[in-house]
């Protein structure tokens, strides 16, 4: 399943098959597909990530988020929307802030390359058997 963060992009978990020298590994790894207004990304390069069509994409669950921090869902939605607007404004004005997703990873821009770097703990939490393969792929 994937989660769409409106105005920013989609997080999903994909299964990837890798042939090793002695066996075939199937690992689960996180991916992020950027979906921002292209005018924000002038002169920036970002990896093209395609999420397979068979993965169900769900909208961000503001109600669930509100339960984790005791704020009303409308307030959570407003905070998320304003944060994404601020981030896109900063990119448009050639500032390169990092956008941290707790327990997931960091969206950063270095040398005009915008990319998502997942925390090792996030990857390890998805893949229990072949953690090192998943870490190398991500």
Automatic annotation (TrEMBL):
Residues 57-128 form the CCDC81 HU domain. GO terms for cellular component: microtubule organizing center. It comes from the Eukaryota. PANTHER family: COILED-COIL DOMAIN-CONTAINING PROTEIN 81. This is CCD81 protein. It comes from Myiagra hebetior. The gene is Ccdc81_1.
């Amino acid at each position: 399943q994937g989660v769409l963060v409106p105005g920013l992009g989609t997080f999903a978990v994909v299964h990837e098959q890798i042939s090793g020298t002695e066996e075939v590994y199937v690992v689960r790894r996180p991916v992020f597909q950027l979906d921002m207004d292209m005018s924000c990304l002038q002169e920036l390069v970002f990896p093209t990530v395609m999420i397979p069509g068979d993965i169900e994409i769900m909208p961000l669950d503001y109600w669930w988020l509100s339960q984790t921090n005791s704020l009303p869902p409308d307030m959570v939605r407003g905070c998320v929307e304003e944060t994404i607007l601020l981030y896109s404004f900063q990119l448009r004005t050639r500032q390169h802030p990092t956008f941290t997703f707790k327990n997931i990873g960091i969206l950063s821009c270095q040398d005009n390359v915008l990319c998502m770097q997942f925390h090792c703990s996030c990857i390890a939490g998805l893949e229990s058997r072949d953690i090192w393969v998943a870490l190398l792929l991500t």
